[in-house]
Specification:
CATH superfamily of the largest domain: paralog of FGE (formylglycine-generating enzyme)
Number of strands: 23
CATH architecture of the largest domain: Alpha-Beta Complex
Strand content: 15-25%
Structural class: alpha/beta
Number of domains: 2
Strand order of the largest sheet: 3-2-4-8-1-9-10
Helix content: 10-25%
Largest sheet: 7 strands, mixed
Oligomer: single chain
Radius of gyration: 25 Å
Shape: globular
Number of helices: 14
């Protein structure tokens, strides 16, 4: 286990360990913010931080305590923490108490000096929790723990925000980790009495004083106390996949008292813990306990989808989307960043992407770290600043069902075959096409075996049908949207092996199920999909976009140029160069992890079709 990042969202503490790590060094960063200047003040955040600071010192942690920290203070503290944990024998822990906001399907920690009028201000005024992930990932220490005491209602006006309450669920590597929540996803945690501690923090502090408890029992003890204290209105829960035992204190434990709770709340907690799983056994376990439960039909559909054989022409029921939003209303939207809309009942869902600037291209050292072959290096240099106007981009890749409506209405011809994997190599196969790329797809899978010319024909039809200006994204727009404010190799971080909750790329599932793939270079995790996955199967990036990395490569508008010398800097498409060849971005279900990066670019002739290439639509205001 190289890194275990654990989230206790809302008022929680989480601990993790292997086989009685007695000699490890322990370092904790503890932040408590409640004296906010432009947001409602909080009753207990600084008290929670100080109490946790004292408790962690008792448990052998060297602590860095920050109370009522500014954005600069928080940033510097995170950097100092990252330096202190950068050794192979150090356990790192971060505890944060204060306002937290879920927006753009990310979690943001709010400094006391944040000036927030809307969610748009978060990127400049708040701290994205991914900054913690990066610091920990770069430290390369064996174990890290993140504790977020931040599950209060979003304090921004409803018309100016994208989330109602609570924090978003965080996807992490499933092995060697514990994910604990003081309340169910999107549920508000309850504060305690002013001058004291939050309910979950208070119960967890008690549990940490108990001798001889394994980490799992610490959670059970704290969870039971919370449910008793709130009459079942607040239901903590956790997922665990660890080996060995970790004890905060030696000794003999006392019995764990059962907690009288609402059975419906327990069922909801169970369902929330498995609904994003790619293992059919998790849904079978739910049905065994709740054969007539509220989510029984969804569980059976998910089992059928996961167990359906990947055979040519087979159609499987797509899994539930990992996006909790209902489909947006037709033709009604407020063009604010993050807004989701669609122009017709069966049009692609679109997301408003904010204007901004970013550094486009590959960072120094990234290609060497990723093991990019020499013949593919240098395509994404030099790095350069690009200004991007606000535009609209498909929330998902264009699906088989959406492309079928276009073909059925226009009679568009897709003759000519498709380059498809034959178990040894990609070869032109006249029998393969977007309806039959060589593996099973349903209407919610991303369309593949479509050329750049096909994609352009689709956008022309959609523009004519809606009266709006649909098109392909420029390469700069695509990278800006894929990065979503990050500068790491991928929007979830630098490690491609940690991406199975975020992207469908070549991984152990593909190696074991795709003929001839056993020798592929692949991610070490399992994403549960040998071929394409239904859109919405993976977590979004910070702009609320699915599958910007992986699933299928995506055509862009740009002509091919060998590097970025003389590239546009205004976000527009590069309309000169080798225009019979166009740029594709994002990697796919069958490509090595080094292809699946925000900066990497590749190309194909406009007339060719491939079983790993599809597209996503953009729209101008």
């Amino acid at each position: 286990m190289r890194l275990a990042v654990l989230f206790a969202a809302c008022l929680g503490l989480i601990g993790f360990g292997g086989d009685a790590l007695a000699q490890e060094k322990r370092v904790a960063l503890v932040i408590g913010n409640d004296a906010y200047k432009s947001l409602p003040k909080l009753a207990n955040a600084s008290n929670d931080a100080r109490a946790m600071d004292r408790k962690l010192k008792e448990l052998g942690f060297e602590t860095l305590l920050r109370v009522n920290a500014s954005r600069t203070d928080m940033g510097r503290a995170i950097s100092e923490f990252g330096r202190k944990i950068a050794s192979p024998d150090t356990v790192g822990l971060v505890f944060y108490a204060g306002h937290g906001i879920q927006a753009f399907e990310r979690n943001w920690l709010i400094p006391i000096d944040a000036a927030l009028d809307s969610d748009d201000d978060l990127q400049t005024e708040a701290i994205d929790t991914s900054r913690l992930h990066v610091a920990m990932d770069e430290a390369r220490n064996p174990l890290n723990i993140v504790i977020l005491d931040a599950c209060r209602d979003n304090p921004l006006p409803k018309r100016q925000r994208s989330a109602e309450r609570g924090l978003a669920v965080i996807a992490i590597a499933p092995r060697g980790s514990i994910v604990a929540y003081s309340a169910s996803p999107n549920q508000k945690s309850q504060d305690g009495s002013p001058g004291g501690n939050g309910i979950y923090t208070g119960e967890l502090l008690k549990a940490l004083d108990e001798p001889g408890l394994k980490i799992e029992d610490v959670f059970k003890r704290a969870n039971g106390g919370v449910q008793r204290a709130t009459g079942g209105r607040q239901v903590p829960w956790f997922n665990a996949s660890i080996q060995g035992d970790f004890f905060f204190r030696p000794g003999a434990p006392s019995p764990i008292a059962p907690a009288p709770v609402d059975p419906a709340a327990i069922e909801l907690s169970f369902w929330e813990s498995v609904k994003a799983s790619t293992d059919a056994a998790d849904f079978e376990a739910y049905l065994k306990q709740y054969p007539k439960g509220r989510f029984a039909d969804l569980a059976r559909n998910r089992i059928r989808a996961l167990k359906a054989p990947a055979q040519t022409g087979s159609v499987t029921t797509p899994p539930p989307s990992r996006d909790p939003q209902a489909r947006p209303a037709v033709g009604t939207y407020d063009p604010q960043p993050g807004q989701v809309f669609r122009d017709c009942a069966d049009c692609p869902e679109m997301v408003v992407i904010p204007a901004g600037s970013f550094v486009m291209g590959v960072a120094p050292g990234e290609e060497e770290r990723e093991g990019v072959p020499d013949q593919f290096k240098g395509r994404s240099v030099p790095q350069h600043s690009v200004n991007v106007r606000s535009f609209m981009l498909g929330k998902y890749e264009v699906t088989v069902g959406e492309f079928a409506r276009f073909v059925n209405e226009t009679g568009h011809r897709t003759d000519g075959g498709c380059f498809a994997w034959n178990g040894t190599k990609w070869d032109m196969d006249q029998s393969k096409n977007w309806r039959n790329p060589g593996f099973g797809q349903g209407d919610r899978h991303p369309v593949a075996c479509v050329s750049w010319d096909d994609a352009k024909a689709y956008t022309t039809w959609l523009s004519r049908r809606t009266g709006k200006s649909y098109r392909l994204a420029s390469e700069a727009e695509w990278e800006y949207a894929a990065r979503a404010g990050t500068s790491t190799a991928r929007h979830w971080g630098n490690d491609g092996n940690q991406g199975c909750g975020f992207a469908n790329t070549a991984d152990q599932t593909a190696k074991s199920q795709v003929p001839g793939a056993s020798n592929w270079a692949a991610a070490t995790c399992n994403d549960g999909h040998a071929y394409t996955a239904p859109v919405g199967s993976f977590w979004t990036n910070g702009f609320g976009l699915h599958d910007m990395i992986g699933n299928v490569w995506e055509w862009t508008e740009d002509c091919w140029n060998e590097n970025y010398n003389s590239a546009p800097t205004d976000g527009s498409a590069w309309q000169y160069g080798k225009c019979e060849i166009r740029v594709r971005r994002g990697g796919s279900w069958i490509f090595d992890p080094w292809n699946a990066r925000s900066a990497y670019r590749s190309r194909n002739p406009t007339v060719n079709r491939y079983d790993y290439v599809g597209f996503r639509v953009a729209r101008t205001y």
